[in-house]
Amino acid sequence: MPNIKIEDLARIQEQVRHTTLLREGAGRAKITVHMGTCGISAGARKVMDALLKVFEERDIKDIILTTSGCAGLCSREPMATVEIAGQAPVKYVDLTDTKIREIFERHVMGGKVVTEYALAYGSERTH
Amino acid sequence: MDTQNLETIIRKRGAHPGALIEVLLDVQEKYRYLPPEIVEKVSRELTVPASWIYHIATFYNAFSLQPRGRYCVSVCLGTACHVGGGVKILEKIERDLRVKRGCTTTDLDFSLDEVHCLGCCGLAPVVTVNEDLYGKVDLSHVPRILKKYTTKKVGVEDA
Amino acid sequence: MKPYRINLMVCAGTGCVANHSFEIKKALEDEVKKRGLENEVQVVATGCNGFCAEGPLMVVQPEGIFYHQVTIKDIPHLVEEHFLKGRPVQKLMYVPPDAKAPIPKMSDISFFNRQMLIALRNRGLIDPEKIDEAIGRGAYSALAKVLTAMTPPEVVSLIKASGLRGRGGGGFPTGIKWETCRKAHGEPKYIICNADEGDPGAFMDRSIIEGDPHSVLEGMLIGAYAIGSHHGYIYIRQEYPLARERLTIAVQQAREYGLLGDNIFGTGFQFDIKVARGAGAFVCGESTALMASIEGRVGEPRAKYIHTVEHGLWNLPTCLNNVETWATVPEIILKGAEWFTSIGTGDVSKNPWGGSKGTKVFSLTGKVKNTGLVEVPMGITLREIIYDIGGGIPKGKQFKSVQTGGPSGGFLPASLLDLQVDYEQLTEAGSMMGSGGMVVMDEDNCMVDMAKYFLAFTQDESCGKCTPCREGTMRMLETLERITQGKGREEDIQLLEDLSQFVMDASLCALGGSAPNPVLTSLRYFREEYITHIRDKKCPAHVCRELNVYTIDPGLCVTKGHGCGVCRRQCPENAITGEKNVAHVVSQELCKKCGVCYDVCKFDAVKVA
After folding, report:
1. Residue B140: enclosing H or E segment and its boundaries?
2. Which domains does chain C possess?
3. Residue B119: which of A37, A73, A77 has the nearest Cβ?
4. Which is more confident, C66 or B85?
5. Which residue of B has its CA nearest to A75?
6. Which of A114, C11, C63, C119 makes an SS bond possible with C327, Cβ 3.0 to 4.6 Å?
7. Distance CA C121, CA C136 (A)
8. What is the pLDDT of residues C374-420, one digit of tens each?
9. CA distances (Å), origin B6, targets B13, C17, C238, C379
């Protein structure tokens, strides 16, 4: 990889927007598992493993599965965010491998928010 | 004493005094303590007096001059864990493993330590065994956690 | 044109128009005018929302609240409740099918909506192991800005004007540190990121590195450019393996992109970073001890009259800031000093110590419902943090105290809950900002025990170089132990106060200089607890176990527990006798007061007095 130039920043930003912000072609949904130390120790790895297994079993290609750092609310870990293209992201809390499978079925595949496990929708404000 | 590992470590970190702490950390990880033969060799290779190495080894908590157990059990006693009853967990493990904090079981299976804050206070009280981290630990979880690492009988189960 | 506080986006697509959305728009405008809100609320007709089955639809911006099936008669209520009183109307909000209650918005969750994210701006949004995602959220654009459009002195002045102060504890103005280091003689100069987050109860630096490592690298790059440094170190605790791994990956990826190394962005600027591991010594969070540790020596602090900005690492000019400070820098560069000074308390325009600007991250732990990391504007009150964000004390217990600033900080009582959190006010109350640990305690916590806890920590972590710290904290700890064991003497309180003063006055570094703070504040605000321990030999919270007496209620033991025997089997001293269906008894002679019986009894039959 050659050194990037300042103009490249905008290009990378645009690329990232295409691959992660669920525009056409990128995927119809994105699942983010929050994996900081606290999340992992609360069981985020199991949640991730369960999802990876589902992805493999069903050969899923149109959904982005990714990790991110701590979401801040440690007492409700493990947490994951589900974002369906065109809708506000939904944060799920206190997850287990069975709960995430259920969320996958009902929300990601079925399009209905699993309110029992959901904390909230939308994003935090940043300044 | 096998010094193969040490050579790899020194090649990676560099044979100069500035690399001392990094080298010792790797040695500790590989050998589970700082064996005297290794200290001597580090002293020669990095051109640091052995007395200096022992000064470092006794100052920093990461180093041990005695062999450590295969499983290092660390009970967090950071503030949140203290408030959440970490001391009782520690005492329970002391009883179950029949070993005092800071010591290693005679079969070299377990070392038990108290640590100050592992940085996951939201999950207090916290216990780690090597790389595995257990949060919101209750007295009754202790035997179950320890059993994962040994086939021997540990503790009283019905707590 | 004056912006409106609220925009009402009323759907005027064909479907909604058929559902009278024009009449609704008109009715809304009338109602808004009637309430005198016409300068604040604007009603806008929009194109089709695509959700025609639920029409007529209305979206309230900027909140993003979605109302459906709105009728003319709902409007007076809606305007009054939502736009006048700020309470969205539940019954008109869209309920997804199959759902009993609508799930709230992130910005409705009090844990999140009082927070203001600057240092944590990317939390939960990016994959920390992919530099592209960080760039996608704007990383390295502040670096691009300083390298192309600002001179190093301009960068320093901007940081100075922003009033940014060190987030690691002392609150030294960052801009002044940079300026002094920039002017210092000696080459090369070093940049250090202190990621040796040792305060028990603080974990924001770990979280920033684990979630957004590039924000730290970018901050350091900007600092390096401002100061004229080409070499940086990140000194990270050995106890944070995941953070170290992600940091190492981030450094590697930044190098591959040429964001570290020679000729960054083709501007000729060069800078590279090494990641150094700590080896488990709390004192290495002190800047001079940290530098000694990087040099491969024992981490003993040295006198501060030799400034590290002039004679630091390898005796050369060194600028050290902590993780949170570095992570804040790029945002200030992008948004300007004026934006940053608009947040927080005081006035820094003339005196850099004159206020606390921006936000601070706290790790909120202990006896609160919501624990976690919170980033809040300076000047927020303790009550807002603990009750609004933290959700208050669990299990209906009574708030007793909040400890801020870790082992160097102090305990604050309920009477100070309305204290505004900033550097000055916390210090005045006897505590400090510290690295931002915030541990809440309830009625079940004993303040003497907590003071002893912190002192045991600093005593253990004292490097031993200065006698006042090494010996003084030891004697103080012995005194506290005596008190918690029921052997306290009347004069012990005075003794603790005298020793505290002495340790603070005569220690070289801040570890000793602040170690007595927990003792002094607990004496200042909770003196009666000490007196109860000393005079009555009682611990009101039943924490100091030597002062407890454990007994078993024979009635409960038999009727509820049927003499289950768990306590008898668990008692390490074999001090409990009894059998099935017979009340158990604790032998007071054999009892070592470990409290196991109390913890294991499922029937509350074990009593403590």
Report:
1. none
2. 6-106 (3.40.30.10), 131-346 (3.40.50.11540), 448-536 (1.20.1440.230), 548-608 (3.30.70.20)
3. A37
4. B85
5. B122
6. C119
7. 13
8. 999 999 999 999 999 999 999 999 999 999 998 999 999 999 999 99
9. 10, 79, 20, 53
Exposed, middle or buried, B30 (CB in 10 Å: 0-12/13-18/19+)?
A: middle
- Least Cα separation, residue B133 to chain A (angstroms): 5
Write out the residue range of the structural domain in which residue B126 sits: 71-147
- C571 contacts C596 by C-beta, under 8 angstroms: yes
- The DSSP secondary-structure symbol of B122 reads G
Task: Look at C363 and B121 and tell me if their CB atoms are within 8 Å.
Answer: yes
The predicted complex's ipTM stands at: 0.88
What is the domain-level CATH number for residue A74? Answer: 3.40.30.10
B116:C198 CB<8 A: yes
User: What does the pLDDT read at residue C340?
Assistant: 97
Domain that holds residue A93: 27-121
Question: In terms of domains, do B42 and B88 share one?
Answer: no
Comparing A17-26, B52-61, B62-71, B143-152, the range with the smallest average pLDDT is A17-26
C194 φ, ψ (degrees, to nearest 5): -85, 105
**Tokens 């009625």 found at:** C443
Residues of B with CB under 8 A from a CB of C: 17-22, 24-25, 48, 55-56, 59-63, 77-80, 82-84, 88, 91-92, 95, 115-122, 124, 131, 139-140, 156, 158-159
Identify whether A100 is part of a domain.
yes
- Rounded Cα gap, residues C274 and C255, in angstroms: 11
Report how far residue B57's alpha carbon sits from residue B63's, in angstroms, rounded to the nearest whole number: 5
Asked whether residue B64 is domain-assigned, the answer is: no
Q: Give the list of residues 6+ apart from residue A24 with CB closer than 8 angstroms, or none.
A: none
Amino acid at C14: T
CA C417 from chain center: how many Å?
17
CB contact under 8 A, A41 and B119: no
Left (φ > 0), alpha (ψ -120 to 50) or beta: where does B91 sit?
A: alpha
For C442-499, write each residue's pLDDT tens digit.
999 999 999 999 999 999 999 999 999 999 999 999 999 999 999 999 999 999 999 9
B76/chain A closest Cα distance in angstroms = 14
Q: Residue A84 forms beta bridges with which residues?
A: A29
| Alpha-carbon radius of gyration of chain C | 29
Chain B: residue whose CA lies nearest to C570: B156
pLDDT at C105: 81
Report the relative pairing of strands C318-322 and C190-195 from DSSP bridges.
Answer: parallel
Look over chain C and give the mean of its residue pLDDT values, rounded to a whole number.
90
Confirm if C259 and A4 have CB atoms less than 8 A apart: yes
- Given a contact cutoff of 8 angstroms between Cβ atoms, the answer to whether C133 and C213 are in contact is no
Subunits with 3+ Cβ pairs within 8 Å of A are B, C
Q: Which amino acid is it at C187?
A: E
Which residues share a beta bridge with C46?
Answer: C11
Termini Cα distance of chain A: 33
Per-residue tokens: A19:
């691959």
Give the residue on A whose Cα is nearest the Cα of C143: A6
